């Protein structure tokens, strides 16, 4: 499949250099700040290990089937998140879901780049030895930083500049090359932090909370929270896997790819729990601390820890890498659309998309400081972008995706794409039943819950 460049002439579509490169890039998107603090936060709120088991079940029940379908759409369509739908069903309106996916990525990166900029700043603080102090005024430092009218903007722009530079390099020489470096680095850092956390006194209390189920803590809200975490943690229905799937080779094994992405994402989430829960129970910290756990509580922990300055550097580099890999994928979905829709070069499309997202993101940054008084629907600009993209558009796009796979393109069409060049599609009948009936009902329940209807 070829695409047209800015001169209108055909050029070969970019492809991943290796199967591992695709896996690491896709996993890099799924692994982000949510794996570091949001997963432990919802686990703590949901009662620990029982929540984890339900979450694992829904990841397999929803994540793998939808991933197979999304990657199939991209590989069949060989285009961006919108035009891939058009290629498969040219006379229908299903492509509208591609527009929604692109908008989701635009909105998420607008506010995600804010937090990613914080992570970048804290890594530099730790690296230069300015983070760990004896006065322990970490809450004041954090509040002073995010409410400053200039500092967060500077670090957000620096972060987006780095993301733009990587995406501008293209699929193979930019995204794949850097993910091949960043993802192994992330796993090495995880292993180091897991061993350090497990060596803390009373670590077994945190492990018991995280690994020993207490099903008495489970209720309908917990189950819905597990559904939501499974759905959002994998970046489902964002158009990412359609875009990345469009760069896949025809002989790639799609079920194996989907299974590998889910497995790696789960490994990181579980390892994050093994890092955080022994530490928070050792220091008597509330496991539901959310973002404070990263930017306020962890610096406090490192102050009391042997070689704390070194581990602060390792930890915040880990946070920064996780944020960076997700930001790269979010931008690529938008860039692929701009590049192909407006016949631009990759360089021009990346600069324009990155610049517009950065400018919009500045309003999200300032909503913690000078614009904190501006609220819409009782939400700051940052909170509004988060709510609309994650709790409204994403479940809706997921529902349309499942309906397209089950009733638009239909399972037989997906099966044909998956089994291209002799690749197997194990449990196809189970996949078909899940995608046609079970997953749409689950997503409707999540969507209604997010809107407060149930």
What does this 3D model show about the protein?
This protein is an all-alpha fold and 454 residues long. The protein has a single domain (2-450), classed as Hydantoin permease (Orthogonal Bundle). 73% of the residues lie in helices and 1% in strands. The protein is built from 18 helices and two strands. Strands 1-2 form a two-stranded antiparallel ribbon. A hairpin with a 5-residue loop joins β1 (2-4) and β2. α3 packs antiparallel against α12 (254-282) and α13 (291-304) packs antiparallel against α14 (308-341). The longest helix is centred in the C-terminal third of the chain and has 34 residues, at 308-341. It is globular and about 65 Å long. Mean pLDDT is 86; it is low at 4-10.
List the helices and strands and how they pair.
Layout: E1 2-4, E2 10-12, H1 19-30, H2 33-45, H3 49-77, H4 83-88, H5 96-127, H6 138-146, H7 151-168, H8 171-198, H9 203-211, H10 220-233, H11 240-245, H12 254-282, H13 291-304, H14 308-341, H15 346-366, H16 381-408, H17 411-418, H18 428-450
Antiparallel strand pairs: 1-2
Helix pairs in contact: 1-8, 1-12, 1-14, 2-10, 2-12, 3-10, 3-12, 3-18, 5-7, 5-14, 5-15, 5-16, 7-8, 7-14, 7-15, 8-12, 8-14, 9-12, 13-14, 14-15, 16-18
